[in-house]
Specification:
The chain is an alpha+beta fold. Helix content is 27%, strand content 25%. The radius of gyration is 21 Å and the shape is globular. The structure holds flavin-adenine dinucleotide (FAD).
Length: 348
């Protein structure tokens, strides 16, 4: 007889919460354990941007991801009676003639049409910010309201799963129970702190620190998010989030003067308006060396699994990847080899 699934998830960041939700919806009893110190999902801006601006390419897997994203967040919104996924107007202020050239070429291509508005006269002459090379508007961009997401989803988990606020103790894992909680699988969703996990610490998760500023500024548009060298995300009432730094191989969680100066320097590419800084925040993204998430089963401990490495795009990737991981866990659907943990074991 097939063993009844009882799953323990370690980590209630974005990855763990979304997985717990999707498993619960498939009638799997879930225990989710989190120590209450989140350094990524709660710091994130929640932006969902379908383009990579540097070379005007599509974000990895974007067509598949976008198809699943809206139904997923809509379902969460209905479940929690809240607004989580907010359509966002993103205006890219080009960095060079070359970048503008890429856009002009790609806006004509069918595969880019869902993500690019065609440049019009107003975009060329846009004057609410510095605009030396013209600008363009992104289609199908969103922002997840991160604070509401956590408030509502943590409450949802408290009602629909066994949600424990505690440090996970790896030494207490027994063959079929953890501190008396019976399990069929344990799934680790610890973000960059996977480096402390004795079973998965060898994986090439290469943390990338990120810092943002919350500021007050008068005269910057509040109906769209401007982007060049940094993003300016409107928060309402003339407050904005400016982000984000990418500090490679860095796991410290303190805010720094260097990052603040870098963000203010980058902001100057968009506007000379002086911001009043309200707060500065720092977090650490769980980035993988090959820039792909990691999911799958430990090489020898067959009840232990990992779902991690969402990098800088967790809010966009997690709905689809969470579904694919559930299909793999519960229905033995094959994992995308690009994501499968096996890619690291095969190299050993
Ligand atoms: C500054 C910044 C800006 C960002 N902006 C965006 C953005 O705009 N859009 C976007 O999509 N993504 C963004 N990201 C990236 C996004 O935050 C990540 O992709 C995603 O949140 C990672 O989620 P996670 O659940 O894997 O990890 P985490 O959020 O780090 O969650 C891991 C959880 O595991 C828990 N944990 C770890 N070890 C243990 C243990 N031993 N016992 C118990 N609990 C444990 C921690 O308490 C934590 O809550 C940003 C990140 C940063 C830092």
């Amino acid at each position: 007889m097939k063993e009844k699934e009882r799953i323990i998830i370690v980590g209630a960041g974005l990855a763990g919460i979304c997985l717990a939700y999707q498993l619960s919806k498939r009638h799997v009893p879930v225990t989710i354990i989190d120590k209450g110190k989140n350094w990524s999902s709660k710091i994130a801006a929640g932006l969902i941007t379908p383009l990579v601006f540097r070379r005007m390419t599509k974000s990895w897997m974007v067509d598949d991801v976008m198809e699943y994203l809206i139904p997923f967040y809509t379902q969460l919104e209905e479940e929690t009676s809240s607004k989580l996924l907010i359509p966002l107007n993103i205006r890219r202020l080009f960095s060079s003639e070359q970048e503008r050239g890429y856009w002009l070429k790609k806006q004509e291509q069918n595969e880019f049409k869902p993500y690019m508005h065609s440049i019009n006269k107003d975009d060329e002459t846009y004057n609410l910010a510095k605009n030396p090379y013209g600008s363009a508007r992104v289609k199908s961009a969103y922002c997840v309201d991160v604070a509401t997401f956590f408030k509502k989803m943590e409450a949802w988990l408290k009602s629909n799963a066994n949600f424990l606020r505690q440090d996970f103790d790896y030494t207490k894992i027994e063959a079929d129970n953890y501190k008396g909680i019976t399990y069929s699988k344990i799934i680790f969703c610890e973000g960059f702190e996977v480096r402390n996990n004795p079973f998965f610490k060898e994986l090439p998760v290469d943390p990338t620190k990120g810092q943002t500023l919350k500021v007050e500024m008068e005269g910057i548009p509040e109906h769209e998010s401007l982007n060049r060298k940094c993003f300016i995300l409107p928060l309402g009432k003339q407050q904005f989030r400016i982000g984000a730094t990418y500090e490679w191989h860095n796991i410290s969680t303190n805010t720094t003067d260097e990052a603040r100066e870098e963000l203010l320097r980058n902001l100057k590419y968009i506007t000379d308006i002086e911001p009043k800084i309200i707060t500065q925040e720092a977090g650490v993204r769980p980035t993988v060396k090959d820039r792909r998430p990691i999911m799958g089963q430990h090489k020898s401990e067959k009840k232990l699994y990992i779902f991690n490495g969402l990098g800088a795009k967790g809010y966009m990737l997690v709905p689809l990847l969470g579904k694919q991981f559930c299909d793999y866990l519960l229905n033995h659907a094959p994992l995308n080899p690009e994501l499968n943990i096996q890619r690291f074991y095969l190299k050993q």
